[in-house]
Amino acid sequence: MTEPALRRAAFLDRDGVLNVDVGYAHRPDQIEWVAGAPEAVRRLNEAGFRVFVVTNQAGIARGLYGETDVSALMAWMVDRLGEMGGRIDGWRASPYHPEFQAERFAHLSHWRKPEPGMLLDLMSEWPTERQGSFIIGDRASDLDAGRRAGISGYLFKGGNLDAFVRDVLRDILK
Ligand SMILES: [Mg+2]
């Protein structure tokens, strides 16, 4: 087995970046794609970035849904994006919340953004060049996780994600 090549990576928050944040989405019928999301992923693929999704899913700790629901929904989203021309290289979801079942998920407390654990775990699987890598999120905690993982961050406030990514790439590649 050869080690994967060192590449730059784009880390994307899920709810509020790829799909409209309706609060604790855990079924495909709750997924409304953000405008330009599939095109944005494809644009990142074509620019040579690995594309990862990193999502806090405290709904697991809160007992609203299970880890298998998250896995199934993520597989569905990765498949749909693939059909629309965008490749997701990997994803991580953090079930942890400090106020709900904290002991059960304590081993993953460092995964909950703003902690950088999900990003670092992906980086350990996929050698990642931090220079030029970034996270896009709709909350400060997303950007904090990026900063703690040693990469830059861009706050997405809504609109067309592909147009946003085009501007991010212009900034990163200048
Ligand atoms: Mg979000």
Structure write-up:
There is one protein chain. This protein is an alpha/beta fold and 174 residues long. The protein has a domain at 15-28 and 56-133 and 149-158: 3-Layer(aba) Sandwich (Rossmann fold), CATH 3.40.50.1000. The chain has five helices and five strands, in the order βαβαβαβαβα. Strands 3-2-1-4-5 form a five-stranded parallel beta sheet. Helix 1 (37-46) links the parallel strand 1 (9-12) and strand 2. Helix 1 packs parallel to helix 5. The longest helix has 17 residues, at 67-83. Bound molecules: magnesium ion (MG). Magnesium ion (MG) binds at residues 13, 15-17, 21, 137-139. Magnesium ion (MG) binds next to loops.
The oligomeric state is: single chain
Number of beta-strand segments: 5
- The third-level CATH topology of one domain is Rossmann fold
Provide a count of the helices. Answer: 5
Radius of gyration, rounded?
A: 15 Å
Shape: globular
Strand/helix succession: EHEHEHEHEH
**What would CATH call the class of one domain?**
Alpha Beta
> What is the spatial order of strands in the main beta sheet?
3-2-1-4-5
**Low confidence ranges:** none
The main β sheet shows up as: 5 strands, parallel
List keywords for this structure.
binds magnesium ion; 5 strands; globular; alpha/beta; Rossmann fold; single chain; 174 residues
Helices and strands in order, then pairings?
Layout: E1 9-12, H1 37-46, E2 50-56, H2 67-83, E3 90-94, H3 117-125, E4 134-137, H4 140-148, E5 152-155, H5 161-172
Parallel strand pairs: 1-2, 1-4, 2-3, 4-5
Bound molecules: magnesium ion.
